[in-house]
Amino acid sequence: MGVGLAFISALAFSSNYIFIQNGMKRSKKDNGEFLSLFTMVILIAVLELLRIAIYGGPRMPLALENFVYFALAGIFTAFVGRILLFAGIRRIGSSRVAALKNTAPVFTVIIAVLLLGERISFWGGVGMAVIFAALFLQALHDFHQSKLPRADETKPTSPQDSGQKAPQSKLRSGLLLSFSAALFIGLGQISRKQGMVDFDDPILGSLIGSSVALLLFLLMKSVNGSLKETILSNLRHFNTHFVVAGMLTGIAQISFFAALLYTNVSYASVVAAMEPIITVFLVKLFLRREEKVTLRMGATAVTIFLGTFIIIFGK
């Protein structure tokens, strides 16, 4: 049961990337942050209300410290992490972003060592080295490929830019955005872990984090004067792909938390770490025209999964 729920989590996260990328084709200037986040908050709120109606409130009281940690988790993951992640998808595609996002456990371990005083085991270090080696080799290959002009990239994008320079700049920014997203997601995992200390309602914790992220997003849009236009634009050009993506993200979060009720966190984490591999297959099935998946990219996704496996079981 637990392993099955963890697989559902990985599948939902991977499918989320596909819907976001398809949604971006319909909305050239909108990465789907608002609509997907709003949908996710509504879904999690409904599920929490159903859980309370059936089982009652949490057995443990929500302390201020727990609330702060859940809020920080939402800021790091659902707000900053998602914005960076979706911007990365627009630049380098779902399969690369999913692989890079799965380096979050590496950042989680590093942050835990620096901030919480935890120690890295030998096998944890080996797993991190495997992941970094796979990413380094893939990055070298990508940068080399980006220097080679393709037929659709030979026209200048501006009087100053050539067709060869543009894809390399786009690739670099996409990689940087995706790595940054993984870093913030790693921070969010640490915050969520601290928030769950002496508290037994992960759905409420997820709802708090997601709601704080949504409020911050609305505040950001209000400050830069684009809140009204963002809401009206989403109403005028309602993008169902972003709605489905938000629902999938909510399902993925809840499925992973539910998996922890039935199986060891290590087993659940390893199964959930299959996310980049599943994403590669989904891209091959549904985005083959937009994104080319190579054997090397598939090998990188598998290697990152193995590195994550080693980190989790090497603790």
From TrEMBL:
SUPFAM superfamilies: Multidrug resistance efflux transporter EmrE (SSF103481). Signal peptide: none annotated. Its main location: membrane. The chain crosses the membrane at residues 6-22, 34-55, 67-87, 99-116, 122-140, 174-191, 203-220, 241-261, 267-287, 294-314. Keywords: Membrane, Transmembrane, Transmembrane helix. Residues 2-137, 173-312 form the EamA domain. It holds the Pfam family EamA. Residues 156-167 have a biased composition (Polar residues). InterPro entries: AA-Vitamin_Transporters, EamA_dom, EmrE-like. It is a multi-pass membrane protein. It is found in: Endomembrane system. Residues 149-168 are annotated as: Disordered. The keyword Protease does not apply. Belongs to the EamA transporter family. PANTHER family: EAMA DOMAIN-CONTAINING PROTEIN (PTHR32322:SF2), INNER MEMBRANE TRANSPORTER (PTHR32322). This is DMT family transporter. It comes from Ferviditalea candida.
